[in-house]
Structures are given as structure tokens and as C-alpha cells.
Amino acid sequence: MDIQKVMDNLKRKGFKPFYFETGDKATDFVLDLIPQNATVGIGGSMTVKELGLDQKLVDKGAQVYAHAFLPPDKQKDLFKLANSSEWYISSTNALTEGGDFVNIDGSANRISALAFGIPNVVYVLGVNKITPDLESAIDRVRNYASPLNVKRLNKNTPCATSGQCCYCDSPDCICNATLISHHPTKHQKNVYAVIIGETLGY
Q1: Is the separation of the CB atoms in 138 and 108 below 8 Å?
Q2: What is the DSSP letter of 36?
Q3: How far apart are CA 46 and CA 43, in angstroms?
Q4: Helix crossing, 53-60 with 23-33: angle to 10°?
Q5: Distance from C-alpha of 159 to C-alpha of 153, rounded to nearest angstrom
């Protein structure tokens, strides 16, 4: 994998790419990037959790809307607050070498935030999320990331036991909507891609 090629493709498409060898350096960059009193939405992300970004932003003084800080019965309120924030932080299910982000959601709260309404978006991802093309990106999500996530969330889907997507119709399916982001959308001011030279998240 040629990281510089990925960075060049992201920049050509209008994203703002940055590369860091370690998660600590990437975390410091994001903390410096986001103003102290900003409102920040965070999607359900194991990468963000592993980096401790959500709590570090709270410690800095930001108003953070994340799953970890509200009980399950407040989830709808959380989604609304997160999707009206000044900033939104998410990992991605996959990033192609050509510079396309692929994300598949169950509730679509995350992909709606990534696509519309929030002026500043920060993708944070390990190099393990990078795939050669769109076909391999979608395959990565459905046959690697999603089975791991349904196990983590205790969902009852075929892939939880088989580890393979069968495009199921289960009520617990977490692959209900797909977003492929080729460029920042027209209303977005800044879409940062913070790539880390480590394996992080699913």
C-alpha cells in the first residue's frame, strides 16, 4: 500500500488528509484541531474508543455527544444532538486507495451526520481500514467489520455465527444503509482524514 498515493487522492478529491505513525500523535492533532468549547458529535466507533478521544475532548471542555455519555433511553436525543454539532468525529468502515469512504449503518445516524448538516467532519482511521477499491471496501465491511460488530452488540444475525454476510433480512441487521463519500458535500467546510499507521478498530 502506498500511503502517499492515498493521501494524494484524498487531497485531489477535496478532503484534508493527514498521516501519523502513532495514535497518540493523531489524537494530539485532533485535540488541537477542535476548539475548546465546540460541540462535537461522535459516531459509535471502536477506533475513537481505543484512542480515548471522546473522554479527552470532554476533559478539554468540549460538549461531546457520544454513546458513552448518555443512557440507552436517551439515544434518540443523542442522535439529534450529535447530528446538529459543529464537529463530527467518526472512523470509517473502509477507505479505498482511490480516496472513497465506505460506511454501512443500521440506524443511519452516523452516515447522515457524515453526509449532511455538519460543517466539520473528522475521519480517524488505522491503515487496516484501507482497501484497493470499492468492491473490496464493501466486502471488508460486510464480511469482516459487520460480523465483529454484531457480536460486540449481541445482535442476532446469521453473520454473528457464520462470519459471512448473506444480505439477511434480520430485524437485528446493522447493514441497512450504505454511504459512499467520493468528495466532501457542498455544505461541508472541512472534511479531515486522519490516517494512523496502526491497526485500530474493525
Answers
A1: no
A2: T
A3: 9
A4: 40
A5: 13
Query: Which pLDDT belongs to residue 80?
Result: 87
**Are 87 and 63 contacting, i.e. CB atoms less than 8 angstroms apart?**
no
Phi-psi region of 20 (alpha: psi -120 to 50; beta: other; left: phi over 0): beta
Question: 0.85 exceeded by the pTM?
Answer: yes
Output phi, psi for 182, to 5 deg: -90, -30
Mean pLDDT (the chain) is 93
The three three-digit cell numbers of residue 32, written as one number: 488541537
Q: Which residue has the higher pLDDT, 117 or 37?
A: 37
**Residue 120 Cα distances to 7, 98, 143, 166, 179, angstroms:** 19, 22, 30, 35, 18
Nearest to 108 by CA among 155, 157, 173: 173
- Displacement of CA 201 from its chain's centroid (Å): 10
